[in-house]
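Q: My hope is that you can spare some time for a protein that puzzles me. Underneath my words sits a plain record pairing an amino acid chain with its backbone structure tokens. Those tokens are not coordinates but codes from a learned vocabulary of shapes. Thank you; the sequence and its tokens follow:
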Amino acid sequence: MIADDALDQPSRWYGTNLVGVPALVLGSTAFNAHPVALSIAGTCEAHPGLFSLLEGSRDLTEAQDMFVHYLSIAFGLRKPEPHELKSMGQSEQRRWHSSWRKLLQGWGMDSNGAAGAVLKGWVESRFGLMPSFHKAPLARFPSPAWITYLQEKASSRLNNNNIFQQLDLLYEFCQWSLRRIRSQNQATPAQHLRLWRGSNQCEEQVISGRLQNRRCTVRLNNVVSFSLSADDASCFGDWVFEVQVPTAKVLVFPDLLPGQVLQGEQEVLALGGNFEVMARYA
């Protein structure tokens, strides 16, 4: 919902969500400091067979194979054989292209492309976090930037084949994997990942404090990429933010899935919002 006096202030926009935590809270520094576990309503309940199989897996590698195989069957993600294509219509021939893997690969190539718009739209739909940037700042509505974003996130080229439901399962699998890894490695599960993000033109992201004072609060887009090291992050911008990201906000982490998923091998994809950061000039 958007109040009339907040049309040019995206930081005050919010939407309903499916995780039981108000979007204004979910996007706040208070949630980051004291996170709670999140689950997209109905996802695990709609796919009990998958999560039953995962609980019986011997290790993460076996769980990965189960996840990929299940989604391949449930959403028809296997590329048809040449003889199968002959009996399909043109729309059916394209159907297998709309997959969680293709979408993440598209994000890795250009987070402001069509794949990025669909992913931001999914976060908006499931978590209620509104995007703040897509090719240009998403400020007052309507604007050319907003129209472009809305068109791209609804484009049938990528937004079909129940892509939001595929991403729901990806998020739930990621959270299941993090819990499994933590339970095996630590007596007390960690609630945060120490990550870094490189960025340029950061002044417009600062909502409290100053970059030059190192400690400040920044508003990040509703879904963002982080790096596992400061050196990797410095390749993406003049300023590097050190951030404590709640594991509840993580969508993809390295080694979560087999094969090429994101462009960067050390890339973590997570929900955004307001973050307290330690900033340094690279």
About this structure: Residues 152 and 187 are 44 Å apart (CA to CA).
